[in-house]
Specification:
Number of helices of chain A: 16
Distance between the termini of chain B: 39 Å
Strand order of the largest sheet of chain B: 1-2
Shape of chain B: globular
Chains: A mainly alpha (299), B mainly alpha (296), C alpha+beta (435)
Radius of gyration of chain B: 24 Å
Order of helices and strands of chain B: HEEHHHHHHHHHHHH
Helix content of chain B: over 70%
Structural class of chain A: mainly alpha
Strand content of chain B: under 5%
Number of strands of chain B: 2
Distance between the termini of chain A: 33 Å
Strand content of chain A: under 5%
Radius of gyration of chain A: 24 Å
Oligomer: heterotrimer
Largest interface: A-B, 106 and 103 residues
Number of helices of chain B: 13
Shape of chain A: globular
Amino acid sequence: MTATMTKPPVTPVPVASRAPRRKPPWASKIAVNTALLLATAYTVLPLTWLLVASTKSLGDLSGNAFTVTEFHFFENLGDLASADGGVYVRWYLNSLLYAVGGAGLGAFCSVACGYAFDKFSFKGKEKLFGVVLLGVLVPTTALALPLYLLASELGVVNTFWAVFVPVLVNPFGVYLARIFSASYVPGEVLEAARVDGAGELTTFWSISLKMLMPGFVTIFLFQFTGIWNNFFLPLVMLSDRELYPLSLGLYSWHTVVSAEPEYYPLTITGALLAVVPVVIAFLSLQRHWKAGMTSGAVK
Amino acid sequence: MSVQKSHRGAATLLMAPFFALFLGTLVVPIGYAAYLSLFTERSSGLGFGGTETLFTGLGNYLHALGDPAFRAGFGVIAGYVLGYIPVMVGGALVLALLLDSTLARAKRFFQLTLYLPHAVPGIIAAIIWLYLYTPGLSPVVAAMREGGLTWNFLSSDHALSSVINISLWEWVGYNVVIFYAALQAIPREVVEAASVDGAGELRTALSIKLPMIQAAVVMTVLFTVIGALQLFTEPMILNGANPAVNTTWTPNMYAYDAAFRRGDYGVAAAASILLALVAALLSFVVTRIGNRKGAA
Amino acid sequence: MRHKIRTRLGAIGALAALGLVAACGGGGASGGATGSSGPTEITFWTWTKGSAEVVDAFNALHTDVTVKFEQIPSGAAGGYTKMTNAIKAGNAPDVLNIEYPVLPDYVSQGSLADLTPHVGELKSKFPDQIRALTELGGKTWAVPLDASPMVLYYRKDFFDANGITPPKTWDDYKAAAAKVKQADPKARIGTFFPDDPGHFASLAWQAGGKWFGTSGDSWNVSIDDPKSKEVADYWQGLVSDDLVRVQSAFSQEWNASVKAGETVAYVGASWGAGSALRANQPDQAGKWAVAPIPNWGTPASGMYGGSTFAVTKDSKKVEAAVKFISWMTTNEQAITTRIGIAKSTMYPAAADMVPVAAKSFDNSFFGGQDAYSVYKDAAGTIKNGWTWGPSMFATNSTLKDSFGTVTSGGTLTDALGKAQKSTVDELKKRGLNVS
């Protein structure tokens, strides 16, 4: 992944304001950058291994880590597409559907709700918002089992909806949306719209939502990765593998590797392909990521 | 302006979808689990003649709490938190401060590469690391052996550290980005004033910058503790490889085991409720401590 | 504007529904209604080696019943949770793979269909000892695929080169273990599998332990009986003296150490050669041999794992399912397919099928040795009178928990004591009689 980046631009250090009075000794400059490089090695090398491993045949995989006697990547891809009747492709589409559909719908609900929290005042608003914040603190995996028990009572276990609906709710998204709404949608705009006689919903739909778009993208991205990475919920809900998302599908392959070693290269190559969309989403939309992550931390 | 009546309709409509979901996928399931946790299945004789459902009050809670395996799960979480949080928060802080120092180069490149593992789904991260832990497959283990180190990631003594390492890999970059953003938000005049006073990079970092991003640190610790209680995916993968990581290693795994291996929904529900309660309690405590410190 | 929202949401909903429809088209446990003229379709989940090939063969030969097969992870690796999950959710397949130890668990949870009325003649094809493991509370719940006697697999080349003979008794095994380590400090004779209590149970079984029994309407539990403790002490000694490795069963780590020639023998069941050794170590073909499992004085063996096929309670196609199961377990072609084509080394439970299996077995992995004659002798020495309890998942959980500490201060004997206590507690909690 890192290879695609040509000469990373150096953040312009505000020289005028932050220039130290004496030039820092080059020794500490080297020390600092070496430390950062080491940390980078730690984060990047396992991914490099994944990349290299995906080009190996089964025989090479159990040999020396970085030697490849035959370049097997395209064969692995072919095997991946045909294994178990092409089920991997199915998982990929499922994941996309769960993640794109779920994040789109979920982010929309969050934005609408957060916007309402910001722009309207009503009795008990802050208390209600407190309840939403409490929802942020409920561990999602502790929730998966209760969800399963309920779904099982309702007879919807092992259906698309059992996995799709629970991931729509995103209390943290509401929290973010409220903050975004406060900073992106000026009150004067709303006032102007009101004076013009536009209804509140019209205003939201045709004016505010556009202004909130960067916030929507941020919330969407977070939810997208959350759903893409989701494992516990599908694990408890699904037993029909035609409904599996990638995470669960790869897990199911991983668990048969010891008896059926042919699944080893499939798992590796499948894992690499599963990482790609999230990495691309991250690289191309960095600004939005940061906006979401940091608005939680920096008040 | 008074609260316009007409706005109430709009507000309700905008909030309804979210709260419907909130109710249906959060409140109701928890309520239903709480209800289920009060019942147990009973059979009789040799047990091959079917079961009946009985009200048992807090029986399932007592059973879970009395089960050494469940309690041991919280012990594991405690050990994990004690080992993981200092390393993760400390590491992320150091890296963020290094990045923020005037000495660092290629800041965007470093942020990006440090963050990258976070884009990898947890289950895949765990699978990657499992292969990197396995002697005979792993270049890491091979390199360590060459260097005379015989650390076995998969031995039962190293279960906790092996899991911590996976979490660290996934999360350290994420937190670096958060801390770095917080550092960037510090008014430049403050840092400048310090350097005018003759404080070196290191002293500025420790005595000026660090206290100013306390809020971010507290938030991170809070979310990390909640995350720790949910520990499931990584140990689930190590489960088949490290003898110490058994099927009830964490409270979450215990609940999963109760529901799907032992078929005991009552105990599974009780364990989930207990876990959620502990999470709520802990986040309350952490925010309290954080607020007090922040105020002081 | 409201209209717009609706269309947008509608589009997403339609997209989702499309996915649902498409998703349902592929799977589903409940195809083919019974009354229709087409073949009855039944679904089948298993992890036993060669099942895909056996199902293909069955489908090619039969027009009245079609089988839809799905490979699932092995029971301990998540297959059982998947099965339990599906049974609770009401979308279980018709035919399940259940190993002997956990059959009582599934029966006592009310998950299986009573096969008694369907297996009248079929029953007689299996030896009493094996059949008894599938009959609980006076009813038949499953049909056995294989008996799974324990044997000793060893690297003949390594043993020969170092003048080590395959151990006859467990004392010999310990001595041989020391010789292996002496010959190559990196090599060990075998492995203790702390995550696989079933392996230990079969060793206790071989020694004459009896973990469960029934008297009248109540259970006797004696997981920490003297014989089992003896076995525990013995393996504790091997672990403490660093004569065997401690690794998870069938883990990548274990595979890698076998591959590297650092694990030179394996105490396992008949199926272990096909599923574990030959599948993962193709380059060690010809280097392995089989011997009877070491004993405590007189030749004896226990059963490790071993599969049965059961029909789920909600299945509407019990008859078709039994037809398929019966073919799989007692038809010559099914056995030749599984062993000859799919390279399984399971030892058939049905007596008639043993010669068939032996004939179709490719012995090149064992350098021409007739492994099935060793299996046959081992099967003949399986100790009588072993019963599995109704809560093996709970028992195994406790055993695993405490076995996991064997390298860090825990002892195997303690583990047995804990398992005894937790098992009795579990049975009482379920309302069963324990004496």
